[in-house]
Design a protein that fits this description.
By secondary structure, this protein is mostly helical. It is built from eight helices and no strands. Helix 2 runs parallel beside helix 6. The protein is globular.
Amino acid sequence: MTFHHLLSEDISNKDLKINLKKIFSTDEEKPLNSMIHQVVTLSVCLALQNQAIIESAYSYGKDLDENLIKAAHIAANTMAMNNIYYRATHLINSRSLSQQPAGLRMQGITQHGIEATVFELMSLAISAINGCGLCLQSHYKQLQTHFNDEEITEALRIASTLHALKQSCFIAQSNSV
């Protein structure tokens, strides 16, 4: 199953179809190598919590080894927690609150079993999905010395396009009720 098969024939999907084709086409050279592209895609899809999209991501990431799949799970789970906590403390905008220790176990950030920069890129893409500005800034700072802006932008394109796919699937399902 591919991501394209999840789209209805609705004309409102034209831009999404084009973007999916551009990002997931095997014909074009991508800014990210295939393994990184696949694991970022899987981590984002797990964060989106849509079963059909997750199944498509596993199909797309068929070349990923067990360590990468496990790391994608850790990234999705850890960012689900961290993005809420840090987004909230950032938006409350209290100096005293932001100086409090989080008190949340986060060993997965360092014990994921893959290259740290790849985990960081997954975390950036998931943080975009979850809307945590503080986390986005933090991950971006960590990535700047390892990935160029084109590669970082590709991870953000993956996240935004798959988020739009989730929305499209939701609308299609709502219209069928």
